[in-house]
């Protein structure tokens, strides 16, 4: 997660807040309840950033470099400036626009408008005008003269001595090595050694709501409505760019139309909007077009992974070795990770080497389990192949080699590990054994089943503060900084409050994702939101409960321990008839509010809490045309406690849908002659449609009843759901056809060729 | 963002023709393809001539000879849902039903579908290619996985339409009216391959309007089918497809056509395969021979060799489904 | 079905070279006809930088405004009428976020010029509400949790409404096909299918 989210181990320690005992039976948490914001979402009344119009607002658009590598020689703006409705034209030489640009914590690597354009799509100028149409007309009238430079888009070529340098100092950004045990010896002694080179495509996030910010200044105070996954992260970055105290920057995002990691870091468009707003003294909205967002707002880079693995005939995995190559694009980011290779299975001898390079392409950003799905693609196919080679069922082979500690971190123990149950329960529910031995029908359609396992590595950034406020009538206000990026955060957190305070969901009002009015929470990424915020919400609710019961105990003249909160009432356990509605408590009426504060406790000492999963795929391959149809998917996840069943299942299916795209259809294509992306739209970059997902999907939650991970017992879910899907499909395709597909995606284009080669035509 | 253009909504067909013939004017039926091109700057238009309200261009009617007349503005949805078309001209129903997405089919017209511009990503993208008046076809040395294996000549587009191959297979004709009067043209000779003219895809001249598509009466024993292979389940053009309309009597193929989509700059008649089928039974051997005959003249490029296998496969599957 | 031959129709329409020329001439280009929401009979002409008064019927209400030729129905709904329930995803007919009903059929508002919407009945997600109450499809989407981020949702809801108006009792395969013009990057498809089935039930029960 380097470059994307803070390392939890680097966060300064804090005083130990009170730990709460784990929940026993829950009454609300875990149920299938409708979302608290469902009405807004289906009625069209939810206002997303792109929907926002402020009084007197201008619209800005960005002029981008059309070349993969170029130097800006001259920008001619006079024609544009004279056009109707134009209020500002911004270029590198505009006063105030000489803003250094950072990628992560390291020093600046670029500037807001960098005259050295390192990929096709880089920001060169911007226009703010009264209407979007006027802004575009003016943007088209800006003439830019470029000195076109030689470019490099291929990762391997980028390393060649005479490759064009994306940055001074060459294209190699980082090389790392990891090793344990004696890999050479293990390979030499193994019964079976297998290997292959796997490739995964460059995948684009493509959230349905594009990248958009609305900026407004009140004197020296900046307010930004931003389509973001984390308002506090955005606030910090904007404060740095504009050299403002944090309190002078307010970032708000009530609804975000998807992000998948791309909306974690600040895009230049946000700063351009703020700058244009300052120049014009008007609010400015800047929405990146769909096409441009594909060029410049992040991707999961293509990976080339060379894997080698060894096993003994008794089913012991004895060695794993991987070489990883990927490009971060034109600016610092992450591209590859051997984590899964080094952590998923118990393997004494393992080695990995990673190489990351710059190329003249859009910069990578965090994308749903960064680097994990590519690694799963390679690793889980290799494991499948090894199992076959030693004549063992892939389920059994995996079960024989599961890790029980985190070998990557000196055998750190897990707070819980439900992977074994995921595989066993998943296989049982899926009908693995019978499907595996199902006879093929005659004809050209072949069925096959496959599976893959996975885990996710980010335990979360353990800091968040939450306020819960009880009103005199018993209704509750939940005030938290976390964003709900579609995972149901608001609903889950309201359920936690309802669990503790016994108020119905309808009586819980939520304030969230606003740096001006809510408390710090980390960005919603890395599958940490529930893990980090739900314990803080619980603590705040418990704080309210304590105060409330104290009042009630005094009024009812009963000990607080003998009282519970249920259905908006204080109920004496041994005398339910004496229950009193909260609104009738004099002490509450006297105070009007009870405010509880909850803070996230630190992670457990000496242990780590991570989620695990196993997914199963049933496919049909048309051997005449190479088409692959996913007929059935099943996911068994250990993400700890199921906080809300509907949103849990939804998240799992959504992760798998994205996995279908990664495995079967998605692939960014750069033109080798110009370095430009040719498929920067939703038609040519193919994300899965309703017709690409199976009609039969099953979600099997595995709850190991983890009482150590945190005080709600939940682990992350969003990212693991996407990790093994493509690999499971590839294994199923192999089972159906005997063709091992090394390169994702498994398109009909590739498959029909591979099938023909196998037949020998 | 759309650039500026004038807009006229003529009061009659003749006015539409008059407007259509003026410099820089272009017809707007459903507008789907047109607006997409304008938005992407594929070409410019000074004036849009809207024709969607012209009632005489609508409707599906049986003709006296037992064929069918389909008004130019008939939407793809209407065609796909029409019971008579589904029954007698299945290939067309399936072609129309497999195009684009439900919403686009509700809006896109049959004439617009036949006249849509190519989907080559260089042509549509920010590349000054040969078809746009530039000096090179970027597909030759570029990302040509979606390009043609037949009929390329300096330019290597594929024809995007799913209804065109079906209509060619059915030997349909189009009625065209224009400044110089009207003519009825077999669809076979409606499309222009790059070898003939690299800047356009149809024979239409400025001011020409397709007013209707005419289907001949279905031949005795006509069985037809369209099978399209695409990269995802829907909302996608053909990687390759086969439109077959064969007359079969006593188990033998007595006539008909086999037309390929997604592999050539125009709907591609597989003449060799048609010959291989004529007079034969649709047994495994004949089918294999016909499928092989389809690709005999294929000239794949660097990244589209798979289309040779795919055409063989899709033709085999299509013919099997008729056997 | 009529028995007309193509030929007779032609002569009825009077499209022969002579006839054609006969109807031509300067001044045939009429002035704008507006103020009524019926398919425009007469001619309309608007210059690229001019605006044209149009009357649209949106969610059963009559709306008068002036539009530029290049404004799409989506531009008008979102930027001029503040009906932002209809979402902008791509502006190129490739996502379905902008789905509206045009005379009861689902279409993309981003691919429809505002001028072309004249004379048609437009329904947006806002128009599926019964006052403050959710319509059947909307209710079903909430019950089945048929969304994640919710951004594609209004388009999905309207597409489902269009599907069910044409086919009140679709099977699963028909639902999958009918909903195939709306992307959901969050991948809530499974729940969306369930919601459409549930909506069909609700409609049959007459709830919502
Ligand atoms: C995302 C997307 C995916 C698509 N996928 C497919 C697909 O898989 N298969 C497929 O076949 N199509 C596909 N299409 C194309 C779509 O079907 C066509 O764009 C549509 O049918 C065009 O109809 P229209 O009425 O909107 O045409 P318009 O855009 O109005 O017109 C298209 C062209 O035809 C001309 N024209 C229109 N009517 C006439 C006429 N009567 N006489 C003369 N010229 C005329 C216009 O001047 C214009 O140049 C796709 C389109 C999009 C946007
Ligand atoms: S915004 Fe209209 S289809 Fe995407
Ligand atoms: S709910 Fe997010 S795109 Fe569908």
Note down, in words, how this protein is organized.
The complex is a heterotrimer of chains A (761), B (323) and C (208). Chain A has 761 residues and is of the alpha+beta class. Chain A folds into 3 domains: 49-149 and 211-287, 2-Layer Sandwich (Aldehyde Oxidoreductase, domain 4); 299-406 and 415-459 and 606-759, Aldehyde Oxidoreductase, domain 4, CATH 3.30.365; 461-599, 2-Layer Sandwich (Aldehyde Oxidoreductase, domain 4). A 7-stranded mixed beta sheet of chain A has the order 3-7-1-14-11-12-13, sandwiched between helices. In chain A, strands 9-17-16-15-10 form a 5-stranded mixed beta sheet. The longest helix of chain A is centred in the last third of the chain and has 28 residues, at 529-556. The mean pLDDT of chain A is 96. Among the domains of chain B are: 55-115 and 158-215, Uridine Diphospho-n-acetylenolpyruvylglucosamine Reductase, domain 3; 222-322, CO dehydrogenase flavoprotein, C-terminal domain (Enolase-like, domain 1, 2-Layer Sandwich). In chain B, strands 4-5-8-6-7 form a 5-stranded antiparallel beta sheet. In chain B, strands 9-10-11-12 form a 4-stranded antiparallel beta sheet, with helices on both faces. A 3-stranded parallel beta sheet of chain B has the order 1-3-2, covered by helices on one side. In chain B, strand 2, helix 2 (32-39) and strand 3 (47-50) form a beta-alpha-beta unit. In chain B, helix 5 runs antiparallel to helix 9 (163-169), helix 10 packs antiparallel against helix 11 (284-294) and helix 11 runs antiparallel to helix 12. Chain B is globular and about 60 Å long. Chain B starts with 5 loop residues before the first strand and ends with a helix. The mean pLDDT of chain B is 97. Chain C folds into 2 domains: 5-35 and 50-128, Ubiquitin-like (UB roll), CATH 3.10.20; 136-204, Orthogonal Bundle (DNA polymerase, domain 1). Chains A and C meet through helix 1 and helix 17 of A and helix 4, helix 5, helix 6 and helix 7 of C. Strand 1 (6-9) of chain B pairs antiparallel with strand 1 of chain C, so a sheet runs across the interface. Residues 26-34, 36, 72, 76, 99-100, 104, 107-109, 111-113, 115-116, 160-162, 204, 209-210, 235-237 of chain B line the site of flavin-adenine dinucleotide. Chain C: Keywords: 2Fe-2S, Iron, Iron-sulfur, Metal-binding, Oxidoreductase.
